[in-house]
From TrEMBL:
Species lineage: Bacteria, Bacillati, Actinomycetota, Actinomycetes, Pseudonocardiales
Entry-linked InterPro entries: CdaR-like_regulators (IPR051448), CdaR_GGDEF (IPR041522), PucR_C-HTH_dom (IPR025736), PucR_C-HTH_sf (IPR042070)
Transmembrane segment boundaries: none
Residue ranges of domain PucR C-terminal helix-turn-helix in the record: 433-491
Domain named CdaR GGDEF-like: residues: 265-384
Family membership noted in the UniProt record: Belongs to the CdaR family.
The organism's place on the tree of life at top rank: Bacteria
Protein name, entry field: PucR family transcriptional regulator
Length: 496
C-alpha cells in the first residue's frame, strides 16, 4: 500500500489535505504511528501522525521532516495547522509528503491501520456499498451511473457498442476497446480508465469509470464494483426488453385491428386506442420506414422516435421496420403537407447516419378509415424508395402519379438505349454526375435539398450541375430538356 491509496479512502479523502511533497505520494506505506512528541524517530515506510498540539513555527516540525526523509519514511501528518512557507518548501525539497487535518487524528489512525492490516477491506466495503445502493430491483442506466459516480467520486458512464456514452459523461470513453468484451484497464496521463462489459442481453455495452488524481490509487479495488454495476445494468436491460416486447406486441396488434377496420370502430377498439394515446379523428398522414431483416426493431424504436422528434407522431414496430402517422386537427394545406414531408425527409437523413432505412409518406386522409389508406400509400412509397438512392431512399406519394405513368412508357426497348446515349458523357466524367443530376431534378432544382440528399456541400452540387450543362450542351432552365433528362436518368439508374 502507498500513501496515495490511503488518501483515496473516504475517511481520509474528506479530512486530509496535502500541503507539500505531493509528488512523492507513491512511497511505500508500511505503518502509521501516532506520537505526542515531534522529536519522534520515524521508521522506514512510517507515516508519522502528530497527535499533540504543535505551533506552526515549531522548529521540531522541520527536524521531523528531515528525520523522516533520512529514515525513508512515508510522510508527516500535522493536526489543524498550516506550517510556515519555509517548512512547506523544505518538505518539497526533501520529497517528503506533508499533510494536515482538522479531524481527530486518532480516528484517522484507526482507519489507516484497518486498511493496512486488511488490504481488501476497502474493496469489500465498496462492493457491499454498491450492492446495497443498487439492490436487486432493476434500476435505469442513469440511476446506476449516479450511484457508482457518488461512491467512486469520479466520472462514470454507460457506453454503447460504439463507445459513446448514453448515460453519464466520460471524456476518455473513446479509449475503451469495445470490440474486446473483457474487463479493461487503460492508463491515462493523469489517472486510470476502467471498463467492464455488460454482455447480456446486449453485447458491446460497457460500464466505465475514469479515476484521476488521488482516486487513481483505488484502481485495484474498483473493478469488482464495476462488475456489480454491470450486473445491475443487465437486470434492467432484461426487464426493459420484456416490457418493450410486450408493449410492441400490443401496439402491433392494435395497429393490425385498425388497418383491417372496414366499419365504425367499436367501443372496445376505441378504448384500446385511447389507452395507447392514439387519435382516430382528424386527418392522418401515414409513414412507413423499412429496414433490413437483421435490424432489431424493438431495440431501435427509441432511436427512430428520437430521430423523428415530434410528439404528434405515432411509431409502431411493424414487420421489417416501423409504421407510423401524424394526426392533424384540420385538413392540411398543400404547403403544410410539403413542410411536413420536408421535416420527415430531414429526420430520415438524420436516422440514416446510424441505421440504413427507406421511408415513404402518404397523403392526408380523414377519420379511422383514412388511416389505413394513408398507411397503404406510405407503404407503397417506401417500397419504391428502397430502389431510389438518388432520392435519398425517401419518397412522398405526391412525387409519384404522372411521373410513374411516364416511367412505364420509358420501359421500352427503344427508350433505354436512347437514354443511355443521352447521359453517356456524364457517365464517363468524374463526380457521379448522373446521380447528382437525378437528385437535382427530383429536388425540383433545389441546390440545398440536393446537397442534403447527396451529403455534399451545395457549392459542389452547383459546380456539378454547371459541368452537366456544359457536357450535354443543355439548358436545365427549359422544361422539355429537364423532363427528358429526368426520365433518362431515372431509367439509367434503375437499369444499373
Amino acid at each position: 500500500m502507498n500513501l496515495r491509496r490511503l488518501l483515496a479512502v473516504p475517511d481520509w479523502a474528506n479530512a486530509v489535505r496535502v500541503l507539500a511533497g505531493g509528488a512523492q505520494l507513491d512511497r511505500p506505506l508500511r505503518t502509521v504511528r501516532a506520537t505526542l512528541d515531534p522529536g519522534h524517530l520515524p521508521a522506514p515506510g512510517e507515516l508519522v501522525l502528530v497527535a499533540g498540539p504543535v505551533s506552526a513555527t515549531d522548529w521540531r516540525i522541520d527536524a521531523l521532516l528531515r528525520r523522516s526523509a533520512d529514515a525513508g519514511g512515508a510522510g508527516v501528518l500535522l493536526p489543524g495547522l498550516a506550517p510556515l512557507t519555509g517548512t512547506r518548501l523544505l518538505a518539497d525539497r526533501l520529497g517528503m509528503p506533508l499533510l494536515v487535518t482538522e479531524a481527530d487524528p486518532l480516528e484517522l489512525l484507526v482507519t489507516a491501520r484497518l486498511h493496512l492490516a486488511e488490504p481488501d477491506l476497502d474493496q469489500a466495503q465498496l462492493v457491499m456499498a454498491t450492492q446495497r445502493a443498487l439492490g436487486d430491483r432493476p434500476q435505469s442506466p442513469e440511476d446506476v451511473v449516479t450511484v457508482l459516480r457518488d461512491l467512486l467520486r469520479s466520472p462514470v458512464a454507460l457506453l454503447d457498442d460504439r463507445g459513446r456514452p448514453f448515460a453519464g459523461e466520460l471524456a476518455d470513453a473513446r479509449l475503451v476497446r469495445v470490440d474486446e468484451p473483457v474487463a479493461q484497464r487503460i492508463d491515462l496521463d493523469d489517472g486510470v480508465l476502467l471498463a467492464h462489459p455488460a454482455l447480456r442481453p446486449r453485447p458491446g455495452l460497457w460500464v466505465a469509470a475514469a479515476l484521476k488524481g488521488t482516486a487513481a490509487a483505488r484502481a485495484e479495488i474498483v473493478p469488482p464494483a464495476l462488475a456489480v454495476a454491470a450486473g445491475a445494468v443487465q437486470r434492467w436491460l432484461l426487464a426493459n426488453r420484456l416490457e418493450l416486447e410486450r408493449d410492441a406486441r400490443s401496439r402491433a396488434a392494435l395497429l393490425g385491428d385498425l388497418l383491417r377496420l372496414d366499419a365504425e370502430p367499436g367501443a372496445d377498439l376505441r378504448r384500446r386506442v385511447a389507452d395507447a394515446g392514439w387519435r382516430l379523428g382528424g386527418w392522418h398522414i401515414g409513414l412507413r420506414i423499412g429496414a433490413s431483416s437483421t435490424v432489431d426493431t424493438v431495440a431501435r424504436t427509441r432511436e427512430v422516435v428520437r430521430a423523428l422528434g415530434a410528439e404528434d407522431t405515432v411509431i409502431v414496430e411493424h414487420g421489417e421496420g416501423w409504421t407510423g402517422w401524424l394526426t392533424l386537427d384540420q385538413e392540411p394545406t398543400a404547403a403544410r403537407v410539403r413542410k411536413l414531408a420536408a421535416r420527415l425527409r430531414a429526420a430520415h437523413q438524420g436516422l440514416g447516419r446510424t441505421l440504413g432505412t427507406h421511408m415513404g409518406v402518404g397523403r392526408p386522409h380523414p377519420r379511422p378509415e383514412g388511416l389505413a389508406t394513408t398507411i397503404a400509400e406510405a407503404t407503397d412509397a417506401a417500397r419504391l424508395a428502397a430502389t431510389r438512392p438518388e432520392a435519398g431512399h425517401f419518397l412522398h406519394v405526391d412525387q409519384l402519379g404522372m411521373a410513374q405513368l411516364l416511367l412505364e412508357w420509358t420501359r421500352t426497348d427503344t427508350f433505354e438505349p436512347a437514354a443511355r446515349a443521352l447521359v453517356a458523357p456524364l457517365r464517363q466524367a468524374p463526380g457521379d454526375l448522373v446521380r447528382t443530376l437525378a437528385a437535382y431534378l427530383d429536388a425540383e432544382s433545389s441546390l440545398a435539398e440536393t446537397a442534403a440528399v447527396l451529403g455534399v456541400h451545395r457549392n459542389t452540387v452547383a459546380a456539378r450541375i454547371a459541368r452537366v450543362e456544359q457536357l450535354l450542351d443543355v439548358d436545365l432552365g427549359r422544361r422539355d430538356e429537364r423532363l427528358a433528362l429526368h426520365l433518362a436518368c431515372r431509367i439509367v439508374t434503375m437499369g444499373d
